[in-house]
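User: Sequence recovery, please. Input:
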């Protein structure tokens, strides 16, 4: 049974209760607890685009990203029981990884799109799933031992408010593992199509995190060894922007093309993981930060 207390979805309702396979609201059971989220432009279709293009989570960068997050959680939390919320859980690949690597953890998945969560709920019937807007979060304070956000903040216009809610929802001593795309100067059609408001510098991300009262414990770049090729590809894309009607197909093709490099990519990322234990890279394709609520 998940011990997290969730607030009522509508005024006058009792608080919903997680039964182990769904949320009980007013005598009815619903698989996903859905709060109002407003309109950001992100959609179930965009989630499907990314999932299909990256071959359902097997892309070497995405696998390295999840491995980094799991390793940081294991380092920060140890083997103690912990309540962990993944914001932006999408198809549930990280939730599945955490369930294996952190068997004592109580996991919760959160996302912005309802259809994505309904589909995930059928695959993971035992994990509470919540639709909410992180920048205007209704979830209670001092609730989670850890929160994980992999490539989420760039989709939120008010990222400062979003990180403030992360800090609020973490318990004292709780940990946030955050990853975002790096390189503001590399913003291109890929970012526009996937509804990115920005790309980040590592110092800029740390500034947003620290402004919410969190203390940065570890910081680095992911994808440092493939950054030169990534930089050239992004600059080429910037010099040849596509009409809006052609962007979706172009982005899907570009992501799919890099997926074909998986055998080499996995080896490169394994080498980078070893190097990252000894150094902070000067550049990379994603910023990764672990911060703690003090």
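Assistant: Recovered sequence (294 residues):
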């Amino acid at each position: 049974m998940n011990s997290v207390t969730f607030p009522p979805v509508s005024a006058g309702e009792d608080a919903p209760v997680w039964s182990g396979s769904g949320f009980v609201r007013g005598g009815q059971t619903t698989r996903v607890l859905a709060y109002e989220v407003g309109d950001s432009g992100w959609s179930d279709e965009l989630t499907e685009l990314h999932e299909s293009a990256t071959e359902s989570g097997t892309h070497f960068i995405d696998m390295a990203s999840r491995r980094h997050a799991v390793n940081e959680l294991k380092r920060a939390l140890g083997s103690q029981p912990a309540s962990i919320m993944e914001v932006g859980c999408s198809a549930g690949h990280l939730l599945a990884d955490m369930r294996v690597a952190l068997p004592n953890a109580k996991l919760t998945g959160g996302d912005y799109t309802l259809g994505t969560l309904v589909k995930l709920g059928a695959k993971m019937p035992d994990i509470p799933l919540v639709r909410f807007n992180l920048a205007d979060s209704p979830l209670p304070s001092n609730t989670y031992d850890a929160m994980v956000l992999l490539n989420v903040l760039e989709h939120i216009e008010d990222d400062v408010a979003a990180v403030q809610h992360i800090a609020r929802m973490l318990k004292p001593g709780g940990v946030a593992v955050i990853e975002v795309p790096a390189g503001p100067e590399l913003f291109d059609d890929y970012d526009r199509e996937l509804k990115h408001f920005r790309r980040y510098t590592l110092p800029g991300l740390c500034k947003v995190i620290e402004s919410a009262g969190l203390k940065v414990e570890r910081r680095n770049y992911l994808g440092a060894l493939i950054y030169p090729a990534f930089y050239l590809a992004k600059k080429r894309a910037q010099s040849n922007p596509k009409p809006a009607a052609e962007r979706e197909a172009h982005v899907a093709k570009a992501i799919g093309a890099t997926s074909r490099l998986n055998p080499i990519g996995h080896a490169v990322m394994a080498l980078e993981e070893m190097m990252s234990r000894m150094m902070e890279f000067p550049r990379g394709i994603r910023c990764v930060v672990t911060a703690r609520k003090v």
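The mean pLDDT is 92.
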